[in-house]
Structure formats: structure tokens, C-alpha cells
Amino acid sequence: GGCSQLPEAVLRVLAPGLLTARQLMSSRPAGESPAESACKRDCYRMKSRHGVTSRHLCHMLLTRVEFLYCDLASMKSIRQFVQKFKMKKIPLHVLVNNAGVMMVPQRETEDGFEEHFGVNYLGHFLLTHLLLDDLQASGSPGRSSRVVTVSSATHYVGELDLDDLQSRWVGGYSPHGAYARSKLALVLFSHRLQALLAAKGSPVTANVADPGVVNTDLYRHVFWGTRLLKKLFGWWFFKTPDEGAWTSVYAAVSPALEGVGGRYLYNEKEAKSLAITYDPKLQRQLWARSCQMTGIADMSRDTLWG
């Protein structure tokens, strides 16, 4: 997800390393403009907003960073994105699952999924599955490819009902509950993915990055009183987007994590995720249900895994 503040910060922090690498960002539509144009405008905006004045760095941002349209609210769009990426025949060393929505009103994706679960979780689940062969082809012993999935501390209060993944509670829809559920599902997914990768001896690792409480525009849908408090005191309680980006960047490139997976990372250190996220039975159940919902074969039973 490239057209929002946290993904933008991740790009900005990684920018010095793009001298010999290529970074590809996907994005959902921004307003009425084509997503690619919107994201390119973000690059120009980054130059002025964050003091990126070096002519070389500005050129790098607009030539070494490539944008492809991908709407995670659409399974069709995700598949089209992957097809376009594969046609480029470039290696994929790191996949950062960083897109998302937060506290949006009750609504559904193009495929009929509750939006938090569909965008935050199922979209990334499908995207990772479709790009896994590229990640494996790019990894090697001593230089593993990496899948970094961004979750949040909200997962600690999440509840996962396998019979109600669409958040259709009898008592009414809860945006916070739906958001927490999607973040909990992401942690379960990452831990399960790592278990499968390790069992196969794959040169790919999977970790979770928790950016902390970051001052971004994701809070635009929360209660007005919360928005007011954020505006007044956010500078004290919230991380800046740059500060929030560091754990994702650490998970993506730190030598300390070479060959290391199955971790929940916060402030560039390992932490413990919610106890149930380590339950292999729940991991398998959610995985199987996710395969059904996205219309893909169960990777754990695929020949890819032996």
C-alpha cells in the first residue's frame, strides 16, 4: 500500500538502499485519479514535505521506485497486479504486507467480504500466496527472502469466530471489533506461513511487524472525540510515520533476522503476540477457511510444500 503515510514512511527510510535495488509499491485508488498518478504525486510531495532536496535522491525516487495498481478490496485486481509483476521478470526479495483500512463503516469489498477482513487480511493472504514462488526463487541460503506482515497491538483484543469471519454479530456491527479481528487473523497467518516455510526448508521467512500507535490518517474514521484528542495530544502519545516505519524496515532488511521467522516484532525487538496466535490448530483452521474464501488451493497440501 503506497499511497498512505506509513507505507510512504517505509519507502522514505528504505530510499538510501535503492541505489542498487528496485522497490515496487502497490496502491489502492486515490480519489478519482488513477492510482499510479496519485502515487507518483506522492513522490513529489515527499520531496517537499520531508526535505528530500538531493537531485540524485529525487531522481532515484522517481526512477528506482515503480508503481503498479493493486486494489486489495478486489481479488481480480490482486491477480492482475501479480500477473503484471511476473511479466517484468524481476526478483522479489521482500514483500511488505502494509496496506489496510481502519474503523470504516460497515461495507463490503467487491467480492462481498466485510471490508476490514477483506482488505486487511484476505487481500494480503491471496497476494502472498500468488507471489510465493517469486519469493522462493529469489531467496537462497544465507540470503532469505522475507514476508513482513504489518499488524498492530489491537490484535490483543481481537476475537476470532471461524463461523463469523464476516463480523455479522447479532448485537450489531462493531468497526473496532472488525478491525481487531483482521489484525488477529494477520498474526495467525504469518505464524502459520512460517511453520509451512520452515517445514519445507524454504529460503523465505515470515515475521510480523507492529509499528505501534502511529499518527496517520487511518484515524479519520474514529469517533470525533478521539480525533480531537489525537489532534491536541497526538504529538505526545503517537509515533510519527517515520518512527512507526522502523520496525517494518528492521524486519525487511536487518541482518539480525537473516533466516529468522515466526517472530512478532515491536520497536525492533521480539515481543509475544496473543497466546492463541501460537495455536497450530487455529492457524490451520483459519488457513483452510481463507483458502476457501479466496478460491485458491490449500498451500499446505500443495506439492510446493512436499
Description:
Pathway: Protein modification; protein glycosylation. The structure is a single chain. This protein is α/β, with parallel strands linked by helices and 306 residues long. It has two domains: 1-71, no CATH class; 92-305, NAD(P)-binding Rossmann-like Domain (Rossmann fold), CATH 3.40.50. 46% of the residues lie in helices and 11% in strands. The chain is built from nine helices and seven strands; from the N terminus they run H-E-H-H-E-H-E-H-E-H-E-H-H-E-E-H. The strands form two sheets. The protein has a five-stranded mixed sheet, sandwiched between helices. Helix 5 packs across helix 9 (280-294).
Could you give a short description of this structure?
The protein has helices at residues 5-14, 35-49, 55-63, 75-88, 115-138, 175-200, 224-237, 241-253, 280-294, and strands at residues 23-27, 65-69, 94-97, 145-150, 204-210, 264-266, 269-271.
Defining traits:
9 helices; 306 residues; Rossmann fold; alpha/beta
Give the % helix.
Answer: 40-55%
**In whole angstroms, how far apart are the ends?**
32 Å
**Estimated radius of gyration:** 19 Å
> Oligomerization state of this entry?
single chain
CATH top level assignment of the largest domain:
Alpha Beta
Quote the average pLDDT. 80
Strand order in space, largest sheet: 3-4-5-6-7
- Spans of at least 5 consecutive residues with low confidence: 16-21, 30-36
Largest sheet: 5 strands, mixed
- Please indicate the percent range of residues in DSSP E strands (runs of 2 or more): 5-15%
Q: In the CATH scheme, what's the topology name of the largest domain?
A: Rossmann fold
Secondary structural class: alpha/beta
CATH superfamily of the largest domain: NAD(P)-binding Rossmann-like Domain
Q: Judging by the overall fold, what is the CATH architecture of the largest domain?
A: 3-Layer(aba) Sandwich
Number of strands: 7
Number of helices: 9
The number of distinct structural domains comes to: 2
Helix and strand element order: HEHHEHEHEHEHHEEH
The 3D shape can be described as globular
Family: Belongs to the short-chain dehydrogenases/reductases (SDR) family.
Subcellular location: Lipid droplet; Secreted
GO cellular component, one term: lipid droplet
Organism: Sus scrofa
